[in-house]
Recover the amino acids of this structure.
């Protein structure tokens, strides 16, 4: 079994004023390639901190994080940037689209930063837009799209670099229930195609769409249950 990521005895501390805050307290877990994991827990439980560490947006205070064979807890900023650009796809609650760019240009952003915008790559981004149902919106800008359509752009963008795995932070948090189900259907389809997905959510019905639910409480692993939705 190949592992998409491995977390071993990871802690993360922040200092607020003079007060140390322990966001994670010795978390350990494995995520196999092709898994679909929901990370759940109340506000302040460490969900977003864990996602930031897995996304190479931050470093642990102690412990080890492996993405495939690479110990990202020991990489420098340039190396972390390369990992983010080449192997991780991000989906955010607030979409994080660039308002001045079209749908197609937003999807192409990860490739632009890697200097990879060849003709073949452009065609692939058009295919990704078609996959998420936006083939007729390529020249629209985010302000001309609904929330669900903007999240579809974000999903297509997360796939532009053909990532090892996708990190989704409350991907349905700003959407109505019907649109949420459409977005979750897209994520389930990507998982069926072999993509590893780690999703933070506070909604039980959203978490139940995953194959596995990890619950955090006060920075510790409370439970890890596989139910293969």
């Amino acid at each position: 079994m190949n592992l998409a990521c491995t977390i071993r005895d990871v802690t993360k501390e922040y200092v607020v004023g003079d007060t140390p805050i322990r966001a994670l307290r010795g978390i350990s877990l494995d995520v196999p390639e092709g898994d679909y994991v929901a990370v759940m827990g109340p506000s302040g439980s460490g969900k977003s901190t864990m996602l930031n560490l897995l996304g190479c947006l931050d470093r642990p205070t102690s412990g080890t994080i492996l993405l495939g064979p690479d110990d990202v807890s020991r990489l420098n900023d340039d190396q972390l940037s390369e990992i983010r650009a080449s192997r991780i796809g991000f989906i955010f609650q607030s979409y994080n689209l660039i308002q001045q760019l079209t749908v197609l240009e937003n999807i192409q952003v990860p490739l632009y930063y890697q200097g990879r915008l060849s003709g073949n790559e452009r065609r692939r981004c058009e295919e990704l837009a078609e996959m998420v149902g936006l083939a007729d919106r390529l020249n629209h800008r985010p302000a001309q799209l609904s929330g669900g359509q903007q999240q579809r752009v974000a999903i297509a963008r997360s796939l532009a670099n053909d990532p090892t795995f996708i990190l989704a932070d409350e991907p349905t948090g700003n959407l109505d229930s019907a649109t949420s189900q459409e977005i979750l259907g897209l994520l389930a389809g990507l998982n069926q195609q072999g993509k590893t997905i780690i999703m933070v959510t506070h909604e039980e019905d959203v978490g139940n769409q995953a194959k596995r639910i990890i619950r955090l409480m006060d920075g510790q692993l409370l439970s890890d249950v596989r139910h293969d939705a």
About this structure: The two ends are 20 Å apart (CA to CA). Strands lie at 3-16, 19-32, 36-40, 62-67, 70-71, 88-92, 165-169, 196-200, 212-217, 220-226.
